[in-house]
């Protein structure tokens, strides 16, 4: 029979238990100026477990610790796991903000449904997250560039080797401090390897989810790109070499189309492309400005190369949670380097979008996308 806190099929923040460290047990805060991504974790984590016969346990915030799971847990054998990625910001006014958190929760729940992991109330989840962030706010300086990376993870923990939905699960959140946006790592234009022999995702697969199984197999290709002197992979699909994503980022192209119009293009959400929150935000801002054509359509390497040869290709950039927006300066494709004049534009669109989004995140402008904690 389900416990009291899960009779409605979810955990609730009012049941949240908090285990605090003594001040002397807290970690010293790292220098974020040259901080490597993902190697430093804050003092606390959130976790809540689920069992098909008992429902959700009481949620808890406790000092970060190792997990104890059975070696037969389904997450270890069949990749029954997904994650989410978002950030918290301490604005110039000292207040904490989340950027469009409801969209991140919606994507997380959609992935859980596809993985046959249990659903939960997104608002209760966000209230628990806010409690965790309030506890860890000293990891974020009052700044125009400081942020804290949020990594929710959902794993199937049932000890069984049957390839069926897991009857036990664990949902947890860990946090990582990030280097500021004005550090060198966030400024350099990317060089991309576009090699059609590599495929990230395919139609009717799971490329539109944040399953860990979508990312682990890309490491070897990423290493091949780095060995060839590039930063990331430009993933292609099909015999016509359609552009899909940049590494773990959504891809955008700015060009003058064959009608002489300035056009912002990104591939459509067809099951191959991750529905990025920054992707959606860029599209909504660009349509609101109404200064140029905005398209969600397929674009191939042939179209990109033709635009480049005719000096109609203006910008290529990627959008993602970690770097928000990052320009592309070169694409290596079929043995040829194609220089992209993204950062050479007089008033590049990527920079205008970056400033608009970060102004919202840090409270420099008031906007409903920024949710105060």
Describe the structure.
With 373 residues, the chain is an alpha+beta fold. It folds into 2 domains: 4-183, D-amino Acid Aminotransferase, Chain A, domain 1 (2-Layer Sandwich); 188-363, Alpha-Beta Barrel (D-amino Acid Aminotransferase, Chain A, domain 2). The chain is 21% helix and 28% strand. It contains 7 helices and 19 strands. It has helices spanning 74-78, 101-114, 122-135, 219-227, 277-289, 301-309, 349-361, and strands spanning 17-18, 44-51, 55-56, 60-63, 81-83, 86-90, 96-99, 147-156, 168-177, 190-194, 232-237, 242-246, 249-256, 262-266, 293-296, 313-320, 324-333, 336-339, 370-372. The strands form 2 sheets. Strands 1, 2, 3, 4, 5, 6, 7, 8, 9 and 19 form a 10-stranded mixed β-sheet that branches. The longest helix is centred in the first third of the chain and has 14 residues, at 101-114. The chain is globular, with a radius of gyration of 22 Å. The two termini are 35 Å apart. 40% of the residues are buried. The model is unreliable at 1-8 (pLDDT under 50).
Give a short account of the largest sheet.
10 strands, mixed
Unreliable segments (pLDDT under 50, ≥5 consecutive)? Answer: 1-8
Beta-strand share of residues: 25-35%
Sketch the topology as an H/E string, one letter per element. Answer: EEEEHEEEHHEEEHEEEEHEHEEEHE
User: Quick check: average pLDDT?
Assistant: 94
Structural class: alpha+beta
Query: What's the architecture of the largest domain in CATH terms?
Result: 2-Layer Sandwich
Give the radius of gyration: 22 Å
Count structural domains.
Answer: 2
Total helical elements? 7
User: How widely separated are the two ends?
Assistant: 35 Å
What is the total tally of β strands?
19
By CATH's scheme, which homologous superfamily of the largest domain applies? Aminotransferase class 4, branched-chain amino acid transferase, N-terminal domain
Oligomer: single chain
Shape: globular
């Amino acid at each position: 029979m389900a416990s009291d806190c899960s009779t409605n099929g979810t955990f609730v923040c009012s049941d949240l238990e908090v285990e605090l460290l003594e001040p002397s047990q807290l970690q010293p805060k790292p220098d974020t100026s040259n901080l490597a991504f993902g190697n430093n974790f804050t003092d606390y984590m959130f976790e809540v477990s689920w069992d098909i016969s008992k429902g959700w346990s009481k949620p808890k915030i406790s000092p970060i610790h190792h997990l104890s799971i059975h070696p037969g847990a389904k997450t270890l054998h069949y990749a029954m796991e997904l994650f989410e990625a978002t950030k918290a910001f301490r604005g110039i006014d000292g207040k904490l903000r989340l950027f469009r958190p409801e969209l991140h929760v919606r994507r997380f729940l959609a992935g859980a449904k596809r993985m046959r992991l249990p659903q939960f109330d997104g608002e209760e989840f966000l209230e628990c997250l806010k409690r965790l962030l309030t506890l860890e706010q000293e990891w974020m300086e009052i700044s125009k560039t400081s942020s804290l990376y949020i990594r929710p993870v959902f794993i199937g923990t049932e000890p069984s080797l049957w390839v069926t939905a897991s009857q036990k699960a664990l949902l947890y959140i860990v946090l990582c401090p990030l280097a500021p946006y004005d550090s060198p790592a966030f400024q350099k234009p990317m060089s991309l390897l576009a090699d059609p022999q590599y495929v990230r995702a395919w139609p009717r697969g799971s490329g539109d989810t944040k399953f860990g199984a979508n990312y682990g197999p890309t490491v070897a290709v990423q290493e091949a790109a780095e060995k060839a002197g590039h930063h990331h992979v430009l993933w292609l699909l099909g015999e016509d070499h359609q552009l899909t994503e940049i590494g773990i980022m959504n891809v955008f192209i700015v060009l003058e189309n064959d009608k002489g119009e300035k056009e912002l293009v990104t591939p459509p959400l067809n099951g191959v492309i991750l529905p990025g929150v920054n992707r959606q935000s860029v599209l909504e801002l660009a349509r609101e400005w109404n200064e140029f054509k905005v398209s969600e359509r397929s674009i191939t390497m042939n179209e990109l190369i033709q635009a480049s040869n005719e000096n109609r290709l203006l910008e290529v950039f990627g959008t993602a949670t970690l770097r928000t927006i990052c320009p592309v300066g070169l694409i290596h494709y079929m043995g040829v380097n194609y220089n992209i004049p993204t950062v050479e534009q007089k008033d590049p669109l990527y920079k205008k979008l970056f400033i608009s989004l970060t102004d919202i995140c840090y409270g420099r402008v008031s906007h409903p996308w920024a949710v105060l904690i």
